[in-house]
Amino acid sequence: MNLFKNFHKNVGVDLGTANTLLYLKGQGIVVNEPTLVALHSKTGEVLSVGNEAKKMLDRTPAHISLIRPLVNGVISDFEVTEEILKYFLRKAAGKGLFSRYRVAAISVPTNLTEVERKSVEDAMISAGAGKVYLVEAPIAAAIGARLPVEEPASNMVIDIGGGTTEISIISVGGAVKSKSLKVAGDKFNDDIIKSIKEDYQLLIGEPTAEELKISIGSALPTDEKLEMVVRGRDMATGLPKEIIIKDAHIRNVLHRSLRAIVEAVKALIEESPPELVGDILKRGIHMSGGGSLLRGISKYIEKEITVTTNVVDDPLTCVVRGLGMIIEDMPRYEKILSNQQKPRPIVL
């Protein structure tokens, strides 16, 4: 067995605020875990990463710190990001194998500064990559959804991740117009936590808020009336308390954040050339990312924008599948990769 076989491998990395996914050339998606690290507060030792670290969320003793090294898609802790990338790359390589890679394509938000882009590149190289290509998340999502991104016609993509929502109009292999806003899955969770605290005087954690969002959350009223039992700490007594939350409450809570996404989409369309807007009306809007799994969100955007909106197949893995297609056929996507070297975003 050749211990250096992975040095000639290419890898695609969807480094997200909430989850990190890895695509290994010739093998497909080999890692899909939370972007989370458990550290020993005194020694700085990495205790667990990914799924194992998530099990500890809101359940750790004082000497263990849970760290998300990315905030709104931007690296906030370089050393922890490097550690998490090393861990996932080793895991992708397989036990006992040399985990260095020839080329890595990694997704980034559209609004990163040159310094922030350089930090992503440096972290990837330190973790074991030879050459690094940065690909804006909406473009990777469009490729993953098999949209004709190289044609001279517009494709509009809304990628709702954990930390950011990326909205892009893509044509001839590049983003003609882009917006990035810090309203996404994590903001939905925060809204739910604050609402339960204010309206019911009950403290809940992020895992419970996430479960509420997935189980009974929706953008539009549904035929089925949903409810969920929620347990937390009563703010008045400090004792455990159990309440029932209905889907209408969660829908109202999410309304403001959903409006912010719709307004950003409207603003981007208003700033776009009329020919591209005509293409969008003809081809529709495509949604990806975990946030697009919220019940009724595509119908809500379609109703507000008056353009056909649909969620791509398997939206959670759409970006990493796009990165995988790039590393499987680098010559074909060479022009698109060259377009990614300097961002042209509009930052909200």
Please specify the SSE layout and strand pairing:
Elements: E1 10-15, E2 19-24, E3 28-34, E4 37-40, E5 46-49, H1 51-54, E6 64-67, E7 70-71, E8 74-75, H2 78-93, E9 101-108, H3 114-127, E10 129-136, H4 137-144, E11 155-160, E12 165-171, E13 174-181, H5 185-200, E14 202-203, H6 206-216, E15 227-234, E16 240-246, H7 247-270, H8 274-283, E17 285-288, H9 297-305, E18 309-311, H10 318-328, H11 334-339, E19 346-347
Parallel strand pairs: 1-9, 9-10, 11-17, 13-19, 17-18
Antiparallel strand pairs: 1-2, 2-3, 4-5, 4-6, 7-8, 11-12, 12-13, 14-15, 15-16
Report strand %.
25-35%
Class per helix and strand makeup: alpha/beta
Please estimate the helix content.
25-40%
Unreliable stretches covering 5 or more consecutive residues? 1-6, 343-348
Q: What is the general shape?
A: flat
Measure the end-to-end span: 51 Å
Main sheet properties:
6 strands, mixed
Tell me the name of the CATH class of the largest domain: Alpha Beta
Oligomer: single chain
E-strand count: 19
Radius of gyration: 21 Å
Corresponding CATH architecture of the largest domain = 2-Layer Sandwich
In CATH, the homologous superfamily of the largest domain goes by the name ATPase, nucleotide binding domain
| Overall tally of domains | 2
What is the name of the CATH topology of the largest domain?
Nucleotidyltransferase, domain 5
Widest sheet, order of strands: 18-17-11-12-13-19
Number of helices: 11
Question: What is the string of SSEs from the N terminus onward?
Answer: EEEEEHEEEHEHEHEEEHEHEEHHEHEHHE
Mean pLDDT: 89
